[in-house]
Amino acid sequence: MASTSNIGIDERNKELYKALMIEDKERVLELCQQFEDGPFHVVTIHDDTVLHVATYSRQADLVLQLLEMVTDDQLDKLTFQNKIGNTILHEASTSDILVEAAKKMLIKAPGLLYKRNQFDVTPLYRSVCYGKIEMFEFLHNEIQRLKHEGDVEANSEDYYQQKNKTTILHTAVVIESFDLALLIANKYEFLINKKDKDDMTALQLLSCNSSAFESKGGGWAKRLVCSSYWGVPLWQEKWKQNQRYESALSLAKFLIKKDTSWIATKAVEDRDQTKYHQYGRVDSFSSSSSPEQKIEKQATTPLLLATKFGCVEIVKEILSEYPWAVEYIDHDGRTILHIAIKYREMQILEIVAQMGVPMQRLARKVDRYNNTILHMVGEKTDDPVVPVVQSPAFQLRDNLVLFERVREICPSHLLNTINIYKKTAQQLFDAENQNLHEKAIEWLKRTAENSSLVAVLIATVAFAAAYTIPGGPNQSTGLPILLYQPFFVVFTMTDVLSLTFALTSVIIFLRILTSPFRLNDFKQSLPQILMLGVTFLILSVSMMMFAFAATVILMIHNRGQWTKIALYTASCLPVSIFALSYLPLYLSLMKTFKYSLKEVAKIFPHCTSAFVLSCVKSFLPKSSRPNQIKSPVSTCPPKSQACPNLVEMA
After folding, report:
1. Does domain 1-153 bear CATH number 1.25.40.20?
2. pLDDT tens digits, residue range 372-425?
3. Topology of 446-605 in CATH?
4. DSSP of 112-180, one letter per residue?
């Protein structure tokens, strides 16, 4: 008899669970009345009641009706927790559509507001974890109401954080709900300087999130997309990215004005007694411990974190609000210059360079390991930001150009400084780039070989086309039948140019293959030669396609205009695809071209006012020469500048 009863209960449980899954509200209410505990009947192996399941499945109407079924003697069951400690308010806090249901829950059982689950999470905290702004505001208002009524627990700061010190503000930043984080920061300012178990404030966490600022830039095209109401999915995604960027920037501006974690710094002086050679005794650490282990680690300032992770906006805002923060020194004795150079954040380096005096002072700082800013070019990075995929040759070129740029701003007496590992900046750079140098050689050889193969094929086709002229020769005279057609001249010129460009590119690529591949060759000569070879290769393909188009038009010259237009378009398609496929390579090579132009400019003398005056006087007749010209003003730039522009190499 008992077994028959159990079978009946199991069948009803199964039917009740199915009704909840298919959201059959009427059937759920009907089955609940058949159980003694009604909406508090447990239906899952995790001790979830009917109310739990209806709430986390977001069946708002069903939840409200189930709450109506709760009698006065069942009110204490509203605080029932499942196996992981979640109450029905915990489940309701995950959705904004359950705000009305949450109101009714708290009317019947106010104690739900303070219940914590096994993860030490309150309903308010859980609403933040899911980024639910409406639910958070409702629960916040309830807490404020209880505060005014003198509730002791509502006044506790512990309510807004877990036992591991992670606050609701930390959580909002981590889940990238920046609008909610700004709302929390406005309502609970005491949380701004709270630190989690890793000794990090919310601003420090935001400074580590480079992806939050990925939508920067874009110009008029971005503004058009972001202001459009068209329902294009791609545009909507771009609009969301822009909104996310704006929210993150607004949050950063607010936190920067309130956060004080940047104040504490390390007192590392200028190293006037640095060691400039590798002979004799050099202070070093014991083999049993690394230098990093000898120094107490701590969470660094938001400014240096933003520099490390490339959050340029945060750097700008901090330096705008607190310009003196630029002199912050971290636990390794490194300044913002050390960090920016190490992680290749040239835009941030330029911001510091524009500050003038601080740049001159920071450039001569040496860290605790006796590394100058020039050593940082050769330092290994842990790549906090995923770099843009780049070929080894271009990586090596960028490193070489960066080394040259930083060398210009590094004080001359520090150029040969050795660090605690007995290495100068040049030695460290050469050692760290050895593997990259080998990969760059292999990549450049492979690129030259493949490109030369394509060029030879194009030359073969162009050479054969010269002997198979369109229309054929006249049998009596031997001259081409279409000799006097306008497009025959086009065919001849483009075919000859295609052959010329192809063979020229082959010679250039052979020049690369026979190069000694010295390290410094990758800074200028090899990338320039490669760019020249690729240019001739693209031109040869273009000329070949124009020759093909001219041939086809000669053969069907009696057809209509639209036929010719279609043929022109078809002939340009391969050239366009070929050019687009080589565009990333070409743009990378153009950086070297810009750098080369600057190097060439150094050959020419600087224009000075005295030089201009002497030239002018030499061309004037003696009678018309002025006796004296006071305060000549030169329109030329000064011969040297304290802080050269460093962004161009990036």
Report:
1. yes
2. 999 999 987 766 554 555 788 888 988 998 999 999 999 988 999 999 999 999
3. Butyryl-CoA Dehydrogenase, subunit A; domain 3 (1.20.140)
4. GGG---TTS--HHHHHHHTT-HHHHHHHHHHHHHHHHTT-TGGG-GGGGB-TTS-BHHHHHHHTT-HHH
